[in-house]
Amino acid sequence: MERLKTLVELERLRASILSRREPEKPCISICGGTGCHAYRCEDVARAFESEIKRQGLRGQVELKVTGCHGFCERGPLMVLYPQRIFYQRVTTGDVSEIIEETVVKGNIIDRLLYVDPVSGKKAYSEDDVPFYKGQQRLVFGSNGVIDPTNIEDYLAIGGYSALSRVLFDMKPDEVIEEVRKAGLRGRGGGGFPTARKWESCRNAPSSDGIRYVICNADEGDPGAYMDRSLVEGNPHSVIEGMIIGAYAIGSHYGYVYVRHEYPLAVANLSIALEQAREYGLVGEDILGSGFEFDIKISRGGGAFICGESTALMASLEGEIGEPRPKHVHTVVSGLNGRPSNLNNVETWANVPLIINHGADWYSQIGTEGSKGTKIFSLVGKINNTGLVEVPMGITLREIIYDIGGGIPDGKKFKAVQTGGPSGGCIPESLIDLPVDFDRLAEAGSMMGSGGMIVMDEDTCMVDVAKYFVKFLTEESCGKCVPCREGLDRMLDILTDITEGRGKEEDIELMEELGGVIKEASLCALGGTAPNPVLSTIRYFRDEYEAHIREKRCPAGVCKALITFTIDEEKCTGCGVCARECPQDAISGEKKKLHTIDQERCIKCGLCSDLCKFEAVIVS
Amino acid sequence: MVELTINGIKTRAPEGTTVLEAAGEMGIVIPTLCYREGLSPYGACRVCIVEVVEGDRSSLEASCTLPVEQGQVILTGSERVVRTRKVIVELLISSCPNSKTLQDMAANMGINRVRFKIKDRGCILCGLCVRYCKEQMKSGGIGFVGRGTSRRVATAFDVPPEECRNCGGCEWICPVCERACTADNLIDGLCGACQNLVPVETCPVCTGCSESVGPGGHKVY
Amino acid sequence: MTTHATERKGPKTVARKAESDLEKVTAIVGKYGGNRDSLISILQDIQSEWRYLPEDAVRVVASQLGMPLIQVYGVATFFRAFSLTPRGEHIVSVCLGTACHVRRAPAVLEEIKRRLGIEPGETTGDMRYSLETVNCLGACALGPIVVVDGEYRGQMSPGRVKKLLKK
What we know:
The structure holds three protein chains of three kinds.
Chain A: H1 7-20, E1 27-31, H2 34-37, H3 41-54, E2 62-66, E3 78-81, E4 85-87, H4 95-105, E5 114-115, E6 122-123, H5 130-133, H6 151-156, H7 161-169, H8 172-182, H9 194-203, E7 212-217, H10 226-233, H11 235-249, E8 253-258, H12 263-278, E9 294-299, H13 309-316, E10 340-344, H14 345-357, H15 359-363, E11 373-380, E12 386-391, H16 396-403, E13 413-418, E14 424-427, H17 437-442, E15 451-456, H18 461-475, H19 481-498, H20 506-520, H21 524-528, H22 531-549, E16 564-566, H23 576-580, E17 586-587, E18 595-596, H24 606-610, E19 616-618
Parallel strand pairs in A: 1-2, 7-8, 7-10, 8-9, 11-15
Antiparallel strand pairs in A: 1-3, 3-4, 5-6, 11-12, 13-14, 13-15, 16-19, 17-18
Helix pairs in contact in A: 7-11, 7-14, 8-9, 8-11, 10-11, 10-12, 11-14, 18-19, 18-22, 19-20, 20-22
Chain B: E1 2-6, E2 9-13, H1 19-25, E3 49-54, E4 57-62, E5 73-75, H2 79-95, H3 100-108, H4 128-136, E6 142-145, E7 152-155, H5 169-173, H6 209-213
Parallel strand pairs in B: 1-5
Antiparallel strand pairs in B: 1-2, 3-4, 3-5, 6-7
Chain C: H1 4-15, H2 19-31, H3 39-50, H4 55-65, H5 69-78, E1 90-95, H6 98-102, H7 105-116, E2 129-134, E3 146-148, E4 151-153, H8 161-166
Parallel strand pairs in C: 1-2
Antiparallel strand pairs in C: 1-3, 3-4
Helix pairs in contact in C: 1-4, 2-3, 2-4, 4-5
């Protein structure tokens, strides 16, 4: 492939790619995101490949392994184009039937369709699936039609036309102005106005003229994987966004700092970058514009703190991920002491969209203070687990019930955690809250990077608070006292409470300690760490009190406060539990009621797990 | 020069100085642990926090790393500062009780109980030794190793570093091990032998107390 | 930057390493342009090669990158990806992300701990298994997740651990 040296050559190539495409030709798009890999989608893809060959359909049926489609609960997923027939939970055993019946003959295989559990309605195409219907997949939608390892797919959907427009029709100031008019705010958690950041970086003095543009792909919030799926599925959207930003800022050096725990994202990004270089879209004299910019990929080493801008930059300097005070902002003095602009993956991916469709179009979406869409990872106690992209301003209720399909097993919704370890819980009473930066902050939480963890009546909120504090004690860099020692002692108190040693003054002590950690910590990890504790105390104080005063865990989770017993009515005496009990704590004769010796029971939950008759009661 | 207000008093300081330094010029002594003149400021102990007021909002910042800014309004001893600082010292005592420096500080601040579990790390991780070795001795043989509560000062692979010249500076500069408490009668983590029970001026027990009181005999905290 | 001391002593420490090992490490450093911004990637590649970070390799990296040894050592001990002690044949990673936690991942971890007899971060005596925990792999729909040698096993429960370890 010869390097594209001019804009004309790019457009000629694009036209040639499009002319070679046959939109009417059947194309099977299989989700190849990491989530579906856990469902062994690669086996399904391979089965399709051999079946297509076996039936002599090579060249007549296209197979494309794409990035994440978003509906992770129902993987492996596939969409058959051009009809856009949507099949879910596809197994290798279904493959030959799919080819024979649906691809060749055009017959629908009912059992592979999505069926709405409430209405019983079958969905034939993606658009009919309630999970997708409620979304507005402006950024994420392309995942389903792009093979991330083939740049031509991205070019076919108009990729790099935003870059062309920027390089040849717009001055850097105009680019910043467009992004400002669009109202784009950072998607990594801070929600800082992107244009303002770019402008500050552009205006910051640099003695040798070096400025850096960095992509924060160190997505660390547990339960959030939007960025991973974007980098895996549409890496070029991020690359293109970065080049545009670099042009606006006056930077020629870019970095993508990506978690090493995301091997597929690293791989696909590397391939995409290599292809972009090959095609002349990254590197020297891009498309003959004279602008030069290249990107280096740096892997993280397993530290949540490296998602914090100064820690990330320290890591890029070969140091440990220790944050620095931000009195001098990183846009003025960041990586290697030079002006550095750091933005999140999703923020970058929004940029080509804004340039292509215009700020006026973009600013129509969302709310007054929060424009555009946001991708959330909807996980936990929810029927439709997956990644959803919705316009800002949609309510939590719509996300959880209309798109998410509500809570499984008929359980009652209790709370949703947003913003990860830096955020807070939002209870049922606030479920009609519109989701945007400011409203979530008012409620004591924050948007964060987009993790939305749904919890039901069986979730213990004290346990959740303990979980987040434990996570943060493991991720704290350990530099400053309030975070290192404060969170550690906060964990001690929470552990005591969940193990029946809570004292009356503990809640007040945690509120006081939480305030100190929030106010005196050096960086935002410590600064936001008390949020899960403080928000659960705010909305679920009664649970804390039950643990402390009655030594009782209302949700039945905290091991020290629950007992496992066997239900007389339901036990069939099958003996499975007794056999598997690691402590030999269960005894009973065959076909007769079994009992658990409470002295020996370690509350591992194995018996409850294994019992086919639901005869183990947790109280 | 930059104009700022500290504790209601207007002052001027050269650009590039820190609030801690500017306050020091005015005779306002802000307590510190990880700060030492001559070494780069680190901002780890958070004892030197001050309140920065902006309109009707304010935040707490470590004064040793806070650059002076035109129009800044600083409070070094507000209720919020004192209250927060006390908890920080309480946390420090709970993680390193056998330190005369910390016990004195606690006594001076009127801390009479430690509500947190005592876990003696034997070190407050102020990093003075690390910075001394690197910046003053230009050796850099010791550094921080590990993370979180496992973070400690150590040498690579726990062997004497090639760079070490046995200057003893790391031991000398340590605010904890150089001044390990000799009273040896901690009650629930607190010493109480010095200033808590006996007024500073007539205290017969420790001769080191005058250093925490400050030059001229006025109480520092 | 106090690099002079390390560089002066460089050749002595380097000579200790076997020739081919030294070549491998040098090649890895070179692959990333001998740049500090790729220190973590360099160490990761070394760890992939030797299943842990051998002391000599760490010393060579520090010397070749012109960095103080304690700084590289600090990085090696700060990031969870690294192990300075040899790890087992099979790496068992349990995801403890929030979504998995809410679906009872801790109970799965307890069961694995019990069966293997080790804590996270440790390796079994026979060097067969190393246990780790990870904070979110992003495959939340299949939680709780355990990854064994890079293979994702979803919907784990304490009852399914026995089978998982048998394989």
